[in-house]
Design brief:
Layout (H helix, E strand, L loop, with lengths): L4 E6 L6 H11 L10 E7 L5 H12 L5 E10 L4 E8 L1 H14 L14 E6 L12 E6 L1 E7 L5 E8 L3
Antiparallel strand pairs: 1-2, 1-7, 3-4, 3-6, 4-5, 7-8
Helix pairs in contact: 2-3
């Protein structure tokens, strides 16, 4: 039995990621605990061992090739989270999300929540001062990370797994 919650993430390797981090430092209290990321599977507690989770995810990711993602533009969620929007790579990320929930952690799927790929920049009820934020962030996704969320909300990487086997 694993204590603590785990999740499955993409840590994009944007050349200009420092721009994202600057915004997160201003709006996200978790900015110093976890790097900018795309959540593929939300935090979950499960009896599946890390070894078994790694094995299942490795097998699943053999079916996915590296792909390009581009993020640009900001939106505000209903609960005032600031999202950096995915404008390329959405389909691949959604397919990863769907397959992980279908094949690895089916009991944790929340059908009531529509999954939209994004990078959370923080929380604010006002993004008017971010209207001019029009940077583009582009990279190739070639690995997925399994993370353990530490007792102080810090990110502990269990394993990085390459796409395409």
């Amino acid at each position: 039995m694993n204590k603590g919650k785990r999740d499955i993430l993409i840590f994009p390797k944007f050349k200009n990621i420092n721009i994202i981090q600057e915004l997160r430092n201003k709006y996200d209290p978790l900015a110093n605990l976890i790097a900018p990321h795309i959540t593929i599977a939300y935090p979950f507690s499960d009896n599946i061992s890390n070894k078994e989770l790694i094995k299942k995810l490795t097998n699943l990711l053999k079916n996915f090739n590296p792909f390009t993602i581009i993020f640009k533009g900001i939106s505000l969620s209903k609960d005032n989270y600031i999202f950096l929007n995915c404008i390329q790579g959405n389909q691949e990320i959604i397919e990863l999300h769907n397959e992980i929930y279908k094949q690895i952690i089916p009991s944790h799927l929340k059908n009531s929540i529509k999954y939209i790929p994004h990078i959370t920049l923080g929380k604010s009820n006002n993004i008017e001062n971010l209207d001019s934020f029009n940077h583009e962030f582009k990279t190739i996704v070639d690995e997925i990370s399994i993370e353990l969320i530490g007792e102080h909300e810090e990110s502990i990487i269990i394993k990085n797994i390459k796409l395409g086997g």
